[in-house]
Amino acid sequence: MSGYQFDKEITFSEEDKEKVRKPLGKLFEGKPPGTTERLIKHIRKRKPAMLIVVGDFSARELSKSGVHADVYVVDGKVERKTSERFADDIALQIFTKNPAGTISIEAVNALKEAIRSGKRTIVYVDGEEDLLTLPAIMLAPLGSMVVYGQPGIGVVSVDVTEDKKREICAMLKDISAKE
């Protein structure tokens, strides 16, 4: 599979951000607890090789429901407002920076470390974590699942397949070619 190299920071224009605002996978519309219950059934049915959760609200919802991700990516905010810091006592902690509207090399390297660790890991992001959904999909092993919130709409579950990786790779190449 031809992957994306992540050899430079990617900065997203407003137009680029619009492209990634549409759900990248299966959308569970609504609010908790309904969306959480449906998502948990979906996760248990799929039995993903690895579960990666991007976003504080989604991380908290799944964790308090007893579903623990392999990797959490959080920035201490819910819909741009500071929230209680997500914590998991047994998780490895990695700290990184990722400015709003970007995918930084530092954050990608933190994701790589978290995925390779083989331990439950929280990646704490100084900045903004939402665009890190894209490298999470690219870096996750096939058969994994990436979950993230869709503000004001619900939660999205992305099955990591060759086709999904190709789709994200093409999107990233298109965005980075404009820089």
Count of structural domains: 1
| Count of strand segments | 11
Oligomeric form = single chain
Strands across the major sheet, in which order? Answer: 2-11-10-3-4-9-7
Which features characterize this protein?
179 residues; alpha/beta; 6 helices; 11 strands
Tell me what you see in this structure.
This protein is an alpha/beta fold and 179 residues long. The chain has one domain (10-177). Helices cover 37% and strands 26% of the residues. The protein is built from 6 helices and 11 strands. The protein has helices at residues 14-21, 34-46, 56-64, 105-117, 133-139, 162-177, and strands at residues 10-11, 26-29, 51-54, 71-74, 77-78, 81-82, 92-98, 102-103, 121-127, 145-150, 154-159. The strands form 3 sheets. Strands 2-11-10-3-4-9-7 form a 7-stranded mixed beta sheet, sandwiched between helices. A two-stranded antiparallel ribbon has the order 1-8. A hairpin with a 2-residue loop joins strand 5 and strand 6 (81-82). Helix 5 crosses helix 6. The longest helix has 16 residues, at 162-177. The chain starts with 9 loop residues before the first strand and ends with a helix.
Gist?
The chain has one domain. Helix content is 37%, strand content 26%. The chain contains six helices and eleven strands.
Helix-strand layout with pairing:
Blueprint: E1 10-11, H1 14-21, E2 26-29, H2 34-46, E3 51-54, H3 56-64, E4 71-74, E5 77-78, E6 81-82, E7 92-98, E8 102-103, H4 105-117, E9 121-127, H5 133-139, E10 145-150, E11 154-159, H6 162-177
Parallel strand pairs: 3-4, 3-10, 4-9, 7-9
Antiparallel strand pairs: 1-8, 2-11, 5-6, 10-11
Helix pairs in contact: 5-6
